[in-house]
């Protein structure tokens, strides 16, 4: 009985750890993409908003 509870606890702990690591990696990748797109948007543009006047 105790062994079965311990094994179930360990499986849940491993599952929760996997979910946490997966979400962390996903959010990190999303941040990298956003930083890349932000940098890419400023490649050819001017820095002053009223550069046509």
TrEMBL record:
Keyword annotations from UniProtKB, A to Z? Membrane, Transmembrane, Transmembrane helix
Enumerate the transmembrane spans. 20-38
Highest taxon of the lineage:
Bacteria
Q: Name one Pfam family in it.
A: DltX
The identity of this protein, by name, is Teichoic acid D-Ala incorporation-associated protein DltX
């Amino acid at each position: 009985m105790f062994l079965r509870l311990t094994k179930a606890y360990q499986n849940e702990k491993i599952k929760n750890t996997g979910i946490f690591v997966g979400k962390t990696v996903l959010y990190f990748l999303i941040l990298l993409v956003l930083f890349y797109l932000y940098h890419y948007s400023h490649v050819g543009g001017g820095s002053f908003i009223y550069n046509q006047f």
